[in-house]
Amino acid sequence: MAQTIIVADDHPLFRAALKQAVNQAVPDAFTIEVDSIKALQAAIEAHPDSDLVLLDLNMPGAHGFSGLVFMRGQYPGLPVVVVSGSEQLQVVRRSIDYGASGFIPKSAPLPTITKAIQDVLQGDVWLPEGAADKIERMHSDATDFSEKLASLTPQQFRVLGMLAEGLLNKQIAYDLEVSEATIKAHITAVFRKLGVRNRTQAVIAIQQMEIDPSEQSLSGS
């Protein structure tokens, strides 16, 4: 049976490059392309036996690591490899801390991406050359907030993302095609699960998942 691999990135050209790498790594793979967290959720629901997700950290519906944390909470048996334009060591470390099965820099050449996909499908954790030793010496700043975030349902996660974008209850209800009362119930549940009391605290909490652009890079610069 052909393996199902989901390519989640909002840049069409890079999705095409990843699909090419997938085709070289697993010639008979069934590849699904999505461009947002919402589309990713729909793809997994439609293909619950998927074998791998290649995940860009910065996509519509995600705030930094929030998409990865949510994925690991909702679909713990599905391997997720972060494919990121950021090559900061702390980003690599946090990706692994939050449950990624690998980290592929977008600058990696096609043969490297192909080999990484093959390794992860065989059950290995793949990191760029030399990264494992470097991140092993780093302090982990993964917080218990990630566990709380992972406990959200898909709809609650969507609502939290919209809150972080500053949308009002009425706007969220319209976009999700539900009543305002339903949105209020979701928000109450989100606050309870995250241990916050209001929108401001919820937005500040999810900002913990953002990527700090000032961290040291894989190259050591």
Automatic annotation (TrEMBL):
Instruction: Say which domain of life the source belongs to.
Output: Bacteria
Q: Which GO terms describe its biological process?
A: phosphorelay signal transduction system; regulation of DNA-templated transcription
Query: Which parts of the sequence carry 4-aspartylphosphate?
Result: 56
Checking CDD domains in the record gives: LuxR_C_like, REC_NarL-like
Q: Where is the Response regulatory domain?
A: 4-121
Among the GO molecular function terms of this UniProt record, one is: DNA binding
InterPro entries, alphabetically? Answer: CheY-like_superfamily, EvgA-like, NreC/VraR/RcsB-like_REC, Sig_transdc_resp-reg_C-effctor, Sig_transdc_resp-reg_receiver, Tscrpt_reg_LuxR_C
**What is the designated name of this protein?**
LuxR family transcriptional regulator
Q: Does the keyword Transmembrane apply?
A: no
Q: Does the keyword Phosphoprotein apply?
A: yes
Q: Which UniProt keywords apply?
A: DNA-binding, Phosphoprotein
Task: List each copy of the HTH luxR-type domain by range.
Answer: 145-210
